[in-house]
Amino acid sequence: MTKLPFIAIPLIVMLTGCISLAPQNSDVAIAPVPEYLSQSSDKTAVNISNLGWRHYFNDPQLVNLIDMALANNSDLRLAALKTLESYKQYGVAQSDRYPLVTGQSSVDYAGQNHTETSKKYSIGATVSFEFDLFGRLKNLSESQLEAYFATEEAQRNVYMLLVSQVAQAYFNEQIVLQKLATADRQMANYQQALTFTQAGLASGESSYLDYQQAKGMLESIKVSRVELQQEQQLAHHTLQNLVNRYDFTVKPVDALQVITLTIPPNLPSSALLTRPDIMQAEHQLKASNADIGVARAAFFPSISLTGSLSNSSTELSDLLSGATLWDFVPKISLPIFNAGQNQLNLEIANIRQQQAGVEYEKTLHAAFKEVADLLVLAQSYGQQLTLQQQYLATQQTALTLSQEGYLSGSASYLDILDAQRNVFSTELTLLTLKQNTLANQVSLFVALGGGWQE
User: Fold this and answer.
1) When you count CB atoms within 10 A of the terminal residue's CB, does the N or C end of the chain come out lower?
2) CATH of the domain at 423
3) Domain containing 230: what range?
4) 236 domain-assigned
5) Whether 222 contacts 190, CB under 8 Å
6) Cross-strand bridge partners of residue 129
7) What are the beta bridge partners of residue 313?
8) With the CA atoms of 87, 92, 96 and 98 taken in that order, what torsion angle do they form, in degrees rounded to the nearest 10?
9) For the purposes of burial, counting CB atoms within 10 Å of the CB of 437, is it exposed (0-12), middle (13-18) or buried (19 or more)?
10) Looking at the domain assignment, is residue 332 inside a domain?
């Protein structure tokens, strides 16, 4: 048996003792956010991050649309492919930490003029390996692994945003459909008013002014209805684009409901740390730490080992029975002069780490602001809905009183038209507030980590 030179033994032992020159923790200063997002005293709050979207959205039509979007949406498929690509890149980086084995075979023909004088067959194998004494390959692999994790979080973010976008587009179209139904009812009232005043004009009970005002109200509601039809078509196009299908219609539903989120008491801002955008920024910061380790390792010697075995013979039948030649080449490379390239690379790596730290801080503060704003809006919309419903009740009472006054002669028909217009306007405002409330609840659900689980 052929014995390897004794130097191979300590080299192989050194393989398992590599060190990492990457910083253990980032030294980037991150400006803190306030400790709490909410000071709610409600004890019945649920853990939003564990609340699946199938439970949160209890509308079967909406759930079906979200299922279709998750199966067909181009952005989500692209995010999944990017994640897969990043995982394969990590595999490439990881493979550099293992020995490279290559095999080769050849036939060497020699001759003079047109006559073959000799023929030689060769076969062999080569093994090459870099001893990662200072963690260069380890940190390259670690950097790519963190990049993969960051891409995975980006995919999760696309998933959650898609769920929220489909829900909001669906609610938008449903609200417009309700506005159209309200406009149709009001248009029927105006048409009845026009018929009534037209008959009154013939009998002398109504003036020409009453007739023109009734006619103007009807024309006005027709314009509003055309605008709402346009809005409904645009909303449906948005939903089609998200679902990436065009063979469905949205059926109007009487009640649009989602679970009203009850914010946990003294909700800590640390709850934001599981958001995919923050997790993505954190992994990118960790990757920049590993890149510093790669840049530091360039200042130290690189030790590699190449070994080969080969057989050769003039006869193919004797190729494996002949003498075996071996070659063993330990190699040490030490940087001596490269015009400051290694130092510049290290400084670049440190700058990029600082950039990643700033991005993390920026993402963290943006997330805090987003949730804080959504909490303020949630409270405001709740108050506005209550007040608007009370205002609608007063307008409906005013309409009833104007109708009674007209019958008793104490009010004109113009008073009825004005009251009807006020009721219609208030109903549209109430529907818009409901639309904003639904959008706010969906955004808050996703902003606090919901929507990833089904």
Assistant:
1) N
2) 1.20.1600.10
3) 21-97+133-299+356-447
4) yes
5) no
6) 305
7) 121
8) 70
9) buried
10) no
